[in-house]
Every structure is written in C-alpha cells, then in structure tokens.
Amino acid sequence: xxxxxxxxxxxxxxxxxxxxxxxxxLEKDIEMLKxxxxxxxxxxxxxxxTLEPEEGVFHFEWLEEIIDRxxxxxxxxxxxxxxxxxxxxxxxxxPEVLRVDESRHRNLFGGRxxxxxxxxxxxxxxxxxxxxxxxxxxxxxxxxxxxISNEYGGECHCPLCQDAFRGWLRERYQTIDRxxxxxxxxxxSHTYQSFDQVESPSRRGERELHGLNLDWKRFVxxxxxxxxxxxxxxxxxxxxxLPVTANLMYYFEQLDYFRLAKELDIVSWDNYxxxxxxxxxxxxxxxxxxxxxxxxxxxxxxxxxxxxPSATNWQGVSKLKRPGVLxxxxxxxxxxxxxxxxxxxxxxxQGASExxxxxxxxxxxxxxxxxxxxxxxxxxxxxxxxxxxxxxVNSKVAxxxxxxxxxxxxxxxxxxxxxLHYHEVLLKIYRAFRRRAVDVDLIDMEQELSGxxxxxxxxxxxxxxxxxxxxxxxxxxxxxxxTTYWSGIADDTDxxxxxxxxxxxxxxxxxxxxEIDGLFDWxxxxxxxxxxxxxxxxxxxxxxxxxxxxxxxxxTPVMTYGSDFYEGYAALTVNRYGEGSAxxxxxxxDREFYADFIARVLQQNGIEGAVADEIPEGxxxxxxxxxxxxxxxxxxxxxxxxxxxxxxxxxxAVFGDPQKALKPCGLVVLKGGCK
Length: 675
Ligand code: GLA
Ligand code: ZN
Description:
Layout: E1 9-14, H1 23-35, E2 40-43, H2 48-51, H3 61-72, E3 76-80, H4 88-93, H5 120-137, E4 143-147, H6 159-173, H7 176-183, H8 210-237, E5 244-245, E6 247-249, H9 257-261, E7 268-270, H10 280-298, E8 302-306, H11 325-335, E9 338-343, H12 370-384, E10 397-400, H13 403-411, H14 422-434, E11 440-443, E12 454-457, E13 462-463, H15 467-476, E14 480-484, E15 490-491, H16 506-509, E16 511-518, E17 525-529, E18 541-552, E19 556-561, E20 570-577, E21 580-585, E22 587-589, H17 591-604, E23 619-626, E24 629-636, E25 651-655, E26 667-673
Parallel strand pairs: 1-2, 1-9, 2-3, 3-4, 4-5, 6-7, 7-8, 8-9, 10-11, 10-12, 12-14, 13-15, 14-21
Antiparallel strand pairs: 16-18, 17-18, 17-19, 18-22, 19-20, 20-21, 23-24, 24-26, 25-26
Helix pairs in contact: 5-8, 8-13, 11-12, 14-17
The structure holds alpha-D-galactopyranose (GLA) and zinc ion (ZN).
C-alpha cells in the first residue's frame, strides 16, 4: 500500500478524549486548527480506556463524531491503534500482559509501553480492538492512514518471551552445536546442551556471550516487527486497505529500524531537536541526517509525525524555540524528502505528566499567541509548497548506518570502552557532503548499491555474509569506496574474522589492519600530507580516539601519522581497484579533514552537488525531484543573512526570493530541469 498525498501534511497528535466534557473546547479546536492551516491530526493514540472502558464494551461514537467533524472541515485523520498503553482492567484481569524486566520482575500497571509483545492475551485484545476500529473507520473518507501503536520500544523477559526467544534461536541455528560455535560458548565454560537452557541476557546472569547479547537484540527487533505485523493483520481483517505507519524515534538504539520499516507502508518519526544548545547549524546537521536515515529506511518519502511547536517538558532545560526556529525545523523535513510536519500536540493537557509540554493550543486557549502565529506560518508555507508532495531525493552517496555493528561494537570490550564516537564520526562525514550540497542516503548492508557513486563505510565493524563481495563489485564497477578503521572485524555472529581485516576487502583497499591504538580523551595524533599526494592535500589535521596501524598491500599512502611510535605510518590511503577507487581512513580524523578530503574526492570523481560553489557557512541546500523537475531547497541555519549560490541552468522560484539575502531560519525553494 502506497501512501500518496497531493498536499503536504500539517497537524499533530490530538487528544479529544481528554476534553469530552468540554464540547465548547472541541468545537473551538476545529476552528483553530483550520486557522493554523492544519489538514491532518492523529487520533486515538492513548484512547483505549475511553474506547473500551470495560472488557468487551466498546464506545466509538465520540471518535466517529470527531472524525466526521474534522473531515467536514477539511482535516484528515491519521487513526491510531491504542496498543501503546493498556487500560487498567486489562492488566488487572490478565497480569501476563505486563512486562517482565531483565532482572525477571513483573512490572506493576502504569506508564505506557508496559506490555509483553508475546502474551497471547495482549495480542488477542489488541487484535480485537484494531479489527473493530478498522471495521468502523477503515473506509471513512476522513481517515487517510493508520498510526500503529506509539513509539515502539523496550523488551520483555517473561517466560513467554523466553520461550519465543528459544524458538527463534532454534530456527536460526538448527542445532545447539552450531549455536555454541557461533557464540563461542566454550569461553568460561558456558556451553549449552539444549536450546531450552538458553535465557535472555541479564545482569543477574549471563552477559558475557556477545553472540547471545546480539541475538537477543535482534530477537527484540523481530518480536516488535512481529507485533506490528499482528496489529496490521487485524486492521486488514477489519476490511481496511489504508496504508500504515508507526512513529519511530531519533536514532533509536534499541530497534533495527531497517527491519521494522519492512512492516510499514510509510515511515514517520518524532523529531525533537535540542536547538539553542549549540549553533543552530550543528543541530540542523544532526536532525537532517536523521531525516535522511528515515527516508532511506524505505528509500521513499517519510514524514514527521511529532515535534514540539515550542518547548518540550522532558529535556533538561525547557528552552523556547526562538522566533523562526519552528519554521526552519518544519521546512527541514520537507527539504530532506518529507511529506509533512506534524506536532505533538495540538492541545496541551490540563493535568498529568505532559501538562507543561508545548502545544499548538496552550492552556490559555487563544490564537493570539506567538506559537500559534508561528504554527500558522508553517501551515501557510506548507500549503504553498504542495507541488513538492511525492517528489523524491535521489542521492549519489550512500553511507552505512548499521544497527548490528553498533550493538556489537558497544558491547565489545575494546578497543575503546570510553567511547567509539560512532555517531559523531558519521556526522562529521555527513557534514562534509552537506557542505558541498550533496544529498546522502543512510543505508544498511542489504540495500542495493547500484545507482550510488560513493559508498561510505564508517566503522563497519560487522559484515553480513556476502557484504564484502557486494562492496567489491561496487568498486570494481567504478564506485568510490571510503572505509574507516574498525571495519570488517567480525562476522554477523560477532566471531572475529581470522586471516586479516578488513575482511574480504584487503585487496580492494590495498591494506591490512595490523593493530589499533586507543587514545585517551586528551590525546591526539596528526594526519600529515604526503608530498605530492594525489588529492593535493596540504594541511595537517588532528585525529583522536582510535588509530589503526595498517600494513600497505598495494595502496598508496596519502597522509601519514605525525607522532608516536607510528609516526610516518599510513593514515589515509587510496587503492585503485577495477574501475573504481578505495580509500581507507585509519583514524578518527577531525571535521576539517573530512571537509577537505571529501570535497576533493567529489571533485576528482566529477560528482557535483546542487550548486557548484562552496556553500556559505550555515546554509543547507538539498534537492528533490519529480516528473523531470528538480527542486532546490535552501535553508539558512546560520546567524547572518546570506546570498544564496544558484544552481546552473534556468530556475524559477517556488518559495522566497533568490535575489534577496536569505535571512536566518528562512527558506528559498527553486525549481529547474533534472540533470
Ligand atoms: C513522544 C510521544 C508523545 C509525547 C511526546 C512528548 O514522542 O510519542 O506521546 O509523549 O513524546 O515529547
Ligand atoms: Zn513477555
């Protein structure tokens, strides 16, 4: 099921169930939503106890009335399944629905996300209400999309989940001998005789078998994906054929989103950047990369399901968004290929733990607020950008974003338990491409590489079977590969490769990693250019945290280390392989290095960004394409107005004036022909 819209979505989470005794407020809300240019709300996310106040007693009339009224006013509904939080009666009557934590204690009723994904009772109750919602609303013209549960996360260690885990392992390994081999269980004498003996990892028990820890994380992802599928099947059983989404979270460590996305028709995510802690542009790169990750999960448009219109109540300091920042944040979703920007929440709760969370309509309740005005500006802009709906981002660069490698590296004990800085490394590389207005996809090891010209593998610790061959073919066929230290170290059961690393790519890269040095936080080494190097690099750059010592096996050194016993050893190398080239960055080099290095690699390979010139600091330029038209989106996240560099060829303005200096937080959108 494709999700298609001819307009960009604007709206947010709406909780009318908290206001059923105030029809005056509900009526006014609709007027205010229209005034703010909202065209969609998500309903029913935490409504289970209102929808089914007693077991088997369903009250949907209030919801129907609201969906009808919204629809009559041009506002669509994204209808949620209520599984994110269960009613008290359910937990009381069937305690098995409550989660068991890692120390094997069952939780009390309360909070949300507090349920077992395996429990047959929970599954049955969720399926029943989902099916009924689907029967009642699945064909309502006002309902456009299903919002499955809310921010899936967490894990359950109950006996039912333990059994499911064992079953999953049995399928994966077939024999216990194979599991023992893959988990290296002879280490500390932890050999299993049967699958029935396996227990999920626990601080009170087994945590030393990395294969177990990793498989448990994979199982948790699989359980969650299976639960999503179960929810969707119930919706289908109720007759609805509408597409489904689930709201994902910012670089969420617990779940492999590439796997989860397979269960969804469109990806959406909850975007809560902490602006104003650093320069806006720093946060913009971080949020931008996350948008790109979300888009890349399905290599399709996505949207922002939640974000705060003013200040959240859960960040350390509840900082108000400075004027214009909401606009910039919302437009950034569109700039990175999104189909709309929604908020949490439309109307602020009167009590309980989110009563001070920002909202489109606050406790005061009027339209004459700064936030309401800014939300309305976003609404108007999204409306005038409608023609961008359905356009896609066609990136020439792919960077690996790998949950499995992260899980394994974070668990691995060595080479640097004080931090590998995975996220920061990705961000440095990402930023270097952005500085050249080059769009980037973030992919996993399963995605197709054809169509990309550059592939970046930062700390690709764990290789899936067949991945090295795929990368080899990519380079052979003319691709540019950039690999860093700590890549190709272990197979996908976290057994270290024997015979040299980066596994399967030593000839492609022309190097073998021999040893890796961990640096204290306060230590540094340097990248020093080799005279007459192929990239014409002439500056020195700092590097820290991890320094890989490589043996050259055909590669040409481009930079070398500047100090320590490995002074003069290669720190950046290049190797020609087939029609392509393969770069190896041996240490965690600084941001300036990546900026210069990547700019030159792009230039050398004739890979152009959206504009030819260097981009002024603070400016972000992204592109989207549709029907032979290319859109150029310019956003100023800097502190000063800037004159924007124009793309080559004829362009016309869709939004803003390209001749005038672009103000901080402003947007210009141009369009021209596709290249
Ligand atoms: C998450 C949840 C929402 C709400 C917001 C608050 O994104 O999905 O229900 O709690 O956080 O920021
Ligand atoms: Zn469980």
